[in-house]
Inverse folding.
């Protein structure tokens, strides 16, 4: 990406860049970028202000300008949030950027890596595969290349006949980089076969056919090839190999890409993370993970956005006998429902709504109204708003008060913590204590 890049923190403000507004006052931006809520432009004291939304990544605005929206949380923590929640980021395939390497590999990122690798192989094949000269030898009545005089005399002296021994050089694709590609293709085959994406399976079969003349290097001797060890040694006429080798080695080592780092060997389409959504999925996944490790088997962590046996969604209202009852389904969808099973088929309920909003003191009134509605609908013992803490000292549980039989809380989670796993433990322990307290 050769455009100018301006950095801004998520939800941060900057003056509107001059490359963003035309002389007539209209926004100059790609239509598919304007259709998303990556950012907004508003007036502040009469001055146009650019405000980033709850996304992280490099957003191509137009040919001259890109906005790099950086996370408020440490990048390692963001990558853990995306990994545990398995949040699927937006992928702008037509806009390429550079990435550093990360040890976190969310399934959604692994998918994109594989898609990018197959695309890189198609480009390599389209522009001509790397073929190197190999020395070949043969014998017969019709020599090619150079006749090996000494060997011919020796063979004729031993066995007679008129055959000659000869050697020649031949360009062949059976080299280290191509053996690397074939090995990685073989390694991802189970993933491809399990995929329901028919175009992806077809693309894989086509890419594998490119390497029919390449041997299966099961001992991975290709790793000692100088061009695999250092792709910069690839001939300049085959520079597309550099990107393909980088992606192949990344997949081979089980690594991912750094979501915010814009300097590195990997070039792919731009990945944009919706942090609001990722935080919601992360809290659900973290609680489920802790529940699975907890010895209390009577607890169930349910996704409130799903129905059925594994979901926590229900009707918002109970049926009424009033003659004007409209009997129209309106769903209650708290982000998380924790259910504690009790004897006699009874249970206790704790409802949680997750909001990626910086908590300064008390949660927004609209968010309070929402959790209150869910608490009443589920007849829950507790309703909790989970938000990120503005500072480490603000983390933890605060009681908002009581409405009917339901006690309401807000919980601030420190996403800047050096040990995010410890924060997950603390969140789970706090929620289980609330259920115990409400017995």
């Amino acid at each position: 990406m050769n455009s100018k890049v301006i950095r801004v923190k998520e939800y941060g403000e900057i003056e509107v860049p001059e490359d963003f507004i035309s002389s007539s006052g209209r926004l100059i931006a790609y239509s598919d970028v304007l259709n998303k809520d990556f950012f907004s432009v508003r007036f502040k004291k009469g001055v146009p202000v650019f405000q980033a939304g709850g996304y992280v990544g490099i957003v191509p605005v137009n040919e001259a300008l890109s906005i790099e929206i950086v996370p408020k949380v440490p990048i390692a923590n963001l990558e853990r949030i995306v990994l545990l929640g398995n949040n699927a980021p937006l992928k702008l395939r037509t806009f390429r950027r550079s990435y550093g390497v990360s040890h976190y590999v969310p399934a959604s990122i692994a998918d994109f890596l594989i898609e990018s690798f197959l695309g890189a192989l198609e480009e390599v094949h389209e522009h001509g595969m790397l073929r190197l000269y190999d020395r070949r030898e043969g014998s017969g009545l019709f020599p090619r290349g150079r006749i090996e005089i000494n060997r011919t005399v020796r063979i004729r002296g031993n066995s007679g006949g008129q055959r000659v021994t000869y050697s020649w050089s031949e360009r062949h694709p059976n080299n280290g980089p191509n053996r690397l590609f074939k090995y990685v293709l073989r390694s991802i085959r189970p993933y491809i076969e399990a995929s329901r994406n028919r175009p992806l399976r077809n693309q894989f079969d086509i890419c594998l056919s490119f390497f029919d003349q390449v041997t299966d290097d099961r001992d991975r001797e290709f790793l000692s090839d100088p061009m695999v060890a250092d792709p910069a040694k690839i001939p300049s006429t085959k520079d597309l190999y550099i990107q393909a080798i980088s992606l192949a080695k990344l997949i081979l080592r089980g690594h991912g890409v750094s979501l915010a780092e814009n300097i590195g060997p990997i070039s792919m389409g731009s990945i944009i993370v919706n942090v609001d959504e990722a935080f919601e999925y992360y809290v659900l996944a973290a609680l489920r993970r802790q529940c699975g490790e907890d010895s209390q088997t009577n607890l169930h962590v349910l996704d409130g956005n799903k129905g059925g046996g594994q979901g926590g969604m229900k009707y918002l209202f109970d049926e009424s006998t009033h003659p004007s009852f409209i009997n129209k389904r309106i769903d209650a969808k708290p982000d998380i429902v924790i259910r504690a099973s009790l004897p006699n088929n009874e249970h206790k309920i704790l409802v949680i709504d997750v909001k990626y909003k910086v908590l300064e003191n008390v949660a927004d009134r609209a968010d309070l109204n929402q959790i209150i509605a869910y608490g009443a609908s589920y007849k829950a013992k507790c309703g909790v708003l989970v938000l990120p803490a503005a500072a480490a000292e603000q983390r933890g549980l605060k009681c908002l008060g009581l409405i009917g039989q339901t006690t309401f809380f807000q919980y601030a989670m420190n996403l800047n913590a050096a040990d995010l796993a410890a924060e997950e433990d603390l969140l789970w322990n706090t929620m289980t204590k609330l259920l115990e307290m409400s017995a």
User: Anything to note?
Assistant: The CA atoms of residues 348 and 439 lie 8 Å apart. The two ends are 58 Å apart (CA to CA). The first strand starts at residue 4 and ends at 9. The chain has a mean pLDDT of 86.
